[in-house]
Amino acid sequence: MGNVATLRSDTNPEGEQQIGLPYNDMWETHLPRHMTGKYCKAVVYTRKTLSQNFAIWNQLTHPLSTPNSVVVGIVEGEDILVTGTK
Q1: Does any domain span residue 16?
Q2: Range of 55's domain?
Q3: Is 17 within a domain?
Q4: Cα–Cα distance measured from residue 46 to residue 37, given in angstroms and rounded to the nearest whole number
Q5: How many domains does the chain have?
Q6: Higher pLDDT among residues 16 and 86, named by residue
Q7: Which of 76, 21, 66 is nearest to 85 (CA)?
Q8: Tell me: the pLDDT tens digits for 51-66?
Q9: CA 69 from centre of chain
Q10: Does the structure show a pLDDT above 60 at 5?
Q11: Do 46 and 35 touch, CB atoms closer than 8 A?
Q12: What are the backbone dihedrals phi and psi of residue 69, each rounded to the nearest 5 degrees, phi first?
């Protein structure tokens, strides 16, 4: 992912670079298709509770999946309920 944020604190007001994605144990992260050494410019977060009832499918082979676009599907059984890009 590269530098996604600059963290600030009382001990270092200039900030520290944060490498990678912000983590929250209640959310799943989905990254777009990208090559090693290239930076992603998009990420999709889905609530972990959503995956209890549905399959979340990160469609990495979709033509619109690029470092700037994530394509995910929400699947129930054989049916794709939602497909969207970010």
Answers
A1: no
A2: 22-85
A3: no
A4: 25
A5: 1
A6: 16
A7: 66
A8: 888 889 888 888 888 8
A9: 10
A10: no
A11: no
A12: -150, 130
Tokens representing 54? 């549905």
Does position 3 have pLDDT exceeding 60, yes or no? no
Q: What is the pLDDT of residues 17-70, one digit of tens each?
A: 666 777 788 999 888 877 777 777 788 899 999 888 888 988 888 888 888 888
Q: What is the percent of the chain with per-residue pLDDT over 70, rounded to a whole number?
A: 73
Q: Is residue 70 part of a domain?
A: yes
CB neighbour class for 32 (10 Å; exposed up to 12, middle 13-18, buried from 19): buried
Is position 12 within any domain? Answer: no
Is residue 66 within 8 A of residue 33, CB to CB? The reply is yes
Cβ partners under 8 Å of residue 56, min gap 6:
28, 30, 46, 50, 72, 73, 74, 75
Q: What is the pLDDT of residue 42?
A: 83
Q: What's the chain's length in residues?
A: 86
